[in-house]
Design goal:
alpha+beta; 526 residues; 42% helix
Amino acid sequence: MNFNLSLVADWLEDVHQDATVQRRFEQTLELDFERVVAYTGQERLKGKCLYIMDTEAYGRLPAEWAGLGAALLVAGAERRRRAGAPTIFFDGAASVEDLLQNVQEMRTWLANWERDVLLAMVGRISLKEAFDELSRAFKNPLMLSDSALCFVLTAGHLPEGFYDRLWTPAIETGVCPIELYREAWTSVDANAFSRADVCRVEGSSTGHTYLFRNLIVDGRVHGLVETVDANAPLRHSDEVLLEHAGRLLEAAVARQAFSEIAVDANDPLCEAVKGAAVRDAVLRYGLRMRGWDMGDAYYVTYIEHLTKSEAQEEWRRQTQRRFELSYPRASVFADGDGCVMITREKDYPFESLRARFEPGAEPTDGTQFRAGVSTVQGDFRDLAIAAEQARSAFARVAGRHGGVIGRTLTCFFDDSYCADVADSLKFGDGPAWLVPWTVAELARSDAEEGTDYVATVAAYLDRACNANPTAAALFVHRNTLTYRLKRIKALYGLDLEHPEESGVDLLRVHLACRLILESREERESA
C-alpha cells in the first residue's frame, strides 16, 4: 500500500511521543509515495520516494532535488529549510536507521490492513465483519449508512456514556436524524451530500468533530461512511485513511459485494417495503426522483422464478432484470429468493392486469414465474402492508384462487385473503367474507403476540367510539386505550378515531370483531 507524509508524521508522533515532528509539506489525501530509502549520498533522485537523512546530508543536497516529486524525512531539528522539497523534520533521539525501521513498520501495518480488508470484501463474510476489519486503522469508531441515511452499522470502540446528537439517535433508532445531519454537513459545504472526497465538520452545536465520506459509484451516491472524535482528536491521517476506506467500499459496491450498500438498499422505497422506518421527507424524495407522488395509487407484486437450485441468487437476478425490462416504469427490488415490484396504477392499470388473468389455468412448459399481487393502495406509507399482501397472495398461487398471466402463475390478494383469514382463524367458508384484512391482522397479532386488539376495537365500537366507557369496560386507563388505538392505526392503517377521514367501514369492522370474539368463546367453551 502506498503512503503519504501525513501518515508518516502522525505515525512517528505516536511512536516517539517525546519528540517534535515538524511538517513542512502541503497536506493531501492522495497516497503519493511508493518507496522509502535511507539516503547515503550516492542515490539518484526518484519521484514518489521518501528519503531519510540526517541534517548534515540535508544541507549538502544538490539543488536539482527540488520539485521532482521526492520527499524528505530529516533526523534533526529544522535549521535551514530548502525550497521545493516536501519535508518532515524529526527532532528527537531516533537515528536515520531508527526512522527507517519506523516507516517500514508503518508500511507493513498498512499493507496488512489493506490486504485483510480486501480479502474480507471478496470473501463470503458479512458486511459487519468486513466493516470491523476496516475499522482497525482508526482510533475512533466508524459508522456506515445508506444514501437515505438509514443506519446500517457501527464498528470500533464507543466509550461508555458517549452521547452525540447525531450519532446517538442513529444508533438507537437505526435512522440518522436527517435534519440535524443536513444542518451540520451543509454548514461546511452546500454540496456536502454529493461531494466525492472526505469532508471535515466542526460541530459547534454538538461539541464534536466529524469526518465523512460519500460512497459514489457511476455518479450515484450509495452511502456514507463517517467517524467522530469519540476517543481521540481527528488528525489529517484519519482523513487520509477514511478517504482510502471510502474508495475500498466503493470498489465493493461496484461489484455488489454487500447488498446492504448496493443499489437496492439505497432506495427509500426499498427500505419502506421491508418495513424499515423511513421519514416522510425521505420517502417523498424517493418518489419525486421517479416523478411519483405520495398519494398516487399503486400495487405491489412479489415474484420468484419457478426454478429452484443452488444458483438461486442468479435466478433472482434474472427474474429482477426480466421484470425491469417488461415494466420499465415500475420499481423492482431484490427480496430474498425473489423480488418485489412496485407499480403505479396510472402507469400499468390494475384492471388491465386483471383482464389478462386466467383463473384456474394450469401451468405450461413455458411458465417461468410465480407471483402474488396486492390490493391497490393509496398511500406509499403503507408499502410494507402492500408487500405483505403480495407475499400472502404468492403463498396461495397453487390454491383455488390462482391462475395464469402470460408465463406467470399468479394470485391476487383481493381473491385470496378471505381464504387466508378462514385458514388462519379456523373458520369455515361461510362467514369468512365478513372479515376485512385489517381485522384479520388484529386477530393474528392477538394470537401470536398476546395483544388484545380485537376486543379493544369491539368494545370501542360497542360504545359508539366513546373513550371513557370503553376504557372502563376494558378495565384500563384511558391513556392505555388511546395508545392501543394509535398502535392499531400505525400498524394496520385502521383509524377508528377519525373514520370519516380514512373511509373505514365501521359496520363491517364491528361485525368482523364480534364474529371473531364469538368464535373464540365457542372454541374455548368446547
